[in-house]
Write a structure and sequence with these properties.
By secondary structure, the chain is mostly helical. Helix content is about 55%, strand content about 5%. It has a two-stranded antiparallel ribbon with strand order 1-2. Strand 1 and strand 2 form a beta hairpin. Helix 8 runs antiparallel to helix 9. The N terminus is likely disordered.
């Protein structure tokens, strides 16, 4: 990706001087090399200003941020994220820092019963078997591996044709073999 703000590998890092400048802003709670934590009051104030028609860039510039430091896209990204949080839980979601709190997700395996662990293991096996099947088909399609000939009922076909001297059955047998 060419977008430096979206790719974690290419994400811009703040210098020590930029960190000090950003931390001096009253609308900032904390700054690391990679991220800025904005004050909850600023988030609410920015959302209200946005709802009154101000652009994200105007809001951040008026709040004392230099777009050359934080990036031109940062105001849009922040307001988009804050609007989503506001629409889900209202202003209370913006007033408290949620990172690292109340993480949802899978229960740790030690909390699962043996039956739940077995179900999870069976599902994982099924997933891996399906994945292996897809990979085998891909290898055949890419020509890395020749498809295996059906080993099916050649011996069964031979045993059926021996009692009969039928050329039609032998012709069919020849098509199975090739």
């Amino acid at each position: 990706m060419t977008d430096s703000n979206k790719s974690p590998v290419n994400r811009r890092r703040f210098t020590a001087l930029e960190i000090r400048q950003l931390e001096a802003n009253p609308n900032v709670l904390h700054v690391s090399e990679k991220a800025i934590t904005y004050s909850p009051e600023f988030k609410v104030k920015a959302l209200k200003a946005y709802q009154q028609g101000e652009t994200p860039q105007q809001i951040f510039i008026e709040a004392g941020f230099q777009l050359s430091i934080i990036g031109n896209r940062k105001p849009n990204e922040c307001l988009k994220r804050w609007r989503a949080a506001y629409s889900v839980c209202g202003e209370s979601r913006l007033l408290e820092e949620r990172r690292g709190k109340g993480a949802t997700g899978r229960k740790p395996t030690e909390d699962l019963s043996m039956e739940e662990q077995l179900k999870r293991a069976e599902a994982r096996i099924k997933l891996l078997e399906t994945e292996n099947g897809f990979l085998k088909k891909l290898e055949v399609l890419e020509g890395r591996v020749k498809p295996k000939k059906p080993c099916a009922p050649l011996s069964t076909l031979n045993s059926l044709t021996k009692p009969f001297d039928c050329t039609l059955l032998r012709a069919r047998q020849a098509t199975f073999v090739s």
